[in-house]
Amino acid sequence: MAESKSVAFHTLGCKLNYSETSTLSRMLEKEGFIKKDFDDQADVYVINTCSVTENADRECRLLVRRIQRKAPESFVVITGCYAQLKPTEIASIPGVDLVLGAAEKFNIAEHLAVLSKGDSARICSCDIEDVHLFNSSFSLNDRTRTFLKVQDGCDYNCSFCTIPMARGRSRSDLISNVLRNAEQIASTPVREIVLTGVNLGDFGQGNQPQNGKDRENLLDLIRELDQVEGIDRYRISSIEPNLLTNEIVSFVADSRRFMPHFHIPLQSGSNHILGLMRRRYKREMYAERVGFIKKLMPHCCIGVDVIVGFPGETEADFQETYAFLSDLEVSYFHVFTYSERDHTRALEIKPVVPASIRQQRNKALRNLSYIKNRHFRQLHEGQTRNVLLEGHVKGPTMEGYTDNYIKITTPYREEWVNEILPWKI
Predict the structure, then answer these.
(1) Could you tell me the residue range of the domain that residue 397 belongs to?
(2) Rounded distance between C-alpha atoms, residue 365 and residue 332, angstroms
């Protein structure tokens, strides 16, 4: 392994995974590895996996087979949620050399130093109950925006979710460390930081109070970050409705740097299904949160996560969700088709919704999302809002987002890259 000096990464899943992959990449570059694109020939390929959906598991296997065809002598390392949940299953995939669980992914350099090509994969993992450390990370692949991880793990036990089994109990960075990372990011060309975590609203959980102070919380964090010079924009990524307090919303409404944009998981507009999912709120609370946001920030963009086809979801339950979302003043949805995950309580719930019905419901909500998003954009036509234009180019055009997350596409101009410009929508 000592002679192997090039590494390529591929990330499956969420923004949190992207922040961690970027940090792993910088760690290995410090050890002398040359970073390559995943499609290039490399000595080591690292796949940072997700296991939220069945497709992520399947995609991991396809990637390993692709590497085997292209570079059969290269080392293949699998880490991330899938690696923690099913290490033995992954180790049995032909071509995999090393499986790193949640506690070992940030020790990748040490494992690569002693890795040799063998007949079977090495598994370096532990029981998720033994994972207590927080490892901070942030992405720097894009000069415009970075994903900054401030929290990891989850103490919730939603009946459909494997994340607590894959990432462990809720734990957080210290505000002082987050501020140091933000200041480091501010020294780069990055203009926008997206705060990420598994359960971001739970920030501060798992930290011991310092010097007799109360436990830190998300409101404390965003107040401090708002003072960091050199960062023009912050966004709060997905946050549970029961943890999105009126104080946080009020602060964002008055903030110089936090953008008027929230992404709030709903999962279902039926209280019956929310109960089966073991969610910690009812639809009435969700509607209340949306109403309060819109009262303070009528221009605010609100995104929604929703799951269709959950076990026990009747047509009446789905129609209740559809009507609830149709009436709600939100801007777009991320629609997920329920898929069975091992060791989750949802497997015990009957009846199972047929796959064809799940797909029909997914399509119906995606169509509704398109209508809601178009309406949100139309409300702002003729207004001038600040747009951060991104460096990557799609053909002859470039893209950017307003403060309230309206996507702008315009002919490419080099002098506009990574600039914040007033833009008439």
Answers:
(1) 384-424
(2) 10
Distances (CA, A) of 245 to 213, 219, 347: 21, 9, 32
Angstrom distance (rounded) from CA 244 to CA 302: 13
For the stretch 146-174, pLDDT in tens is: 999 999 999 999 999 998 998 999 999 99
pLDDT of amino acid 412 = 93
User: Does any domain span residue 213?
Assistant: yes
- Domain match, 10 and 111 both: yes
Measure the CA–CA gap between 259 and 261, rounded to whole angstroms: 6
pTM: 0.91
- Are residues 94 and 153 both part of a single domain? no
The pLDDT value given to residue 43? 94
103 plus 190 within the same structural domain: no
Is residue 136 located within the same domain as residue 100? Answer: no
Position 265: which residue type?
P
Q: How many domains does the chain have?
A: 3
Query: Residue 271: pLDDT above 90?
Result: yes
Q: For residue 348, with 0-12 CB atoms within 10 Å meaning exposed, 13-18 middle and 19 or more buried, which class applies?
A: exposed
Residues 123 and 145 in one domain: no
The answer as to whether 95 is a domain residue is: yes
Angstrom distance (rounded) from CA 78 to CA 152: 19
d(CA 231, CA 400): 17
